[in-house]
């Protein structure tokens, strides 16, 4: 029988080592931002989780309202700002939904993006465009980035097109327009990415690395960090400095995104 488990801060969760969710990473997860007692972009996160569950045949018969009540119960035990996570784990013919949290990550003052990626994105993979627990490739990219003192690493796909970061989506400003790779490039369509596309004029397409390196400004987005300007690209042991923070599109984009999120947040407390 499928179940919902709430893991409060300091508590542990018991998993069956023979279950597919534990042994093989057969599961999905969502990362949501809790700010001032409000859960940001809940509907978009829930829709993405349930859509991927259908696509990958992971049972997900949970009632939306019941899941939201579990999130609400957890939020009562958390500080005003935190990260709430959902993990949908396959357990034989059923599934397990785990509701838990982690502290909000502290962003570095200077954000770098490592361009040399050890793991390209396979845009033809059945896992592409889904946020699965099969996250080892992303972690390899992220570890390489952190070893180079960068916040994230940029991943290309097998065609050599820019796809995404290990933990973020990518936007860049060039030729008077904000650009982002299209989902056909194999990227995970982040909830913040979708929000930015809705509230701003954004061109989607297939781009080469040279398009990003030659951009006026570069930005990283995910549900935890929002839209963050990238200060430099780390390419072949040299730093290419960017003026993303000072670019004229930066603050207006952040304000529009903040207003969009505020209008689509749920009060939990």
Keywords:
single chain, 269 residues, alpha+beta, D-amino Acid Aminotransferase, Chain A, domain 1, D-amino Acid Aminotransferase, Chain A, domain 2, 2 domains, 6-stranded mixed β-sheet, 5-stranded mixed β-sheet, 7 helices, 31% strand
What fraction of the residues are assigned to beta strands by DSSP? 25-35%
- CATH structural fold name of the largest domain: D-amino Acid Aminotransferase, Chain A, domain 2
Q: What is the global morphology?
A: globular
Helix content: 25-40%
Question: What separation lies between the terminal Cα atoms?
Answer: 30 Å
Largest sheet: 6 strands, mixed
How many independent structural domains? Answer: 2
Total helical elements: 7
**Stretches where pLDDT falls below 50 for ≥5 residues?**
none
CATH class wording of the largest domain: Alpha Beta
* Series of H and E elements: EHEEHHEEEHEEEEHEHEEEEHE
Fourth CATH level, the homologous superfamily of the largest domain: D-amino Acid Aminotransferase, subunit A, domain 2
Number of strands: 16
- Major sheet: order of its strands? 1-5-4-2-3-16
Radius of gyration, CA atoms, in whole angstroms = 19 Å
What is the name of the CATH architecture of the largest domain?
Alpha-Beta Barrel
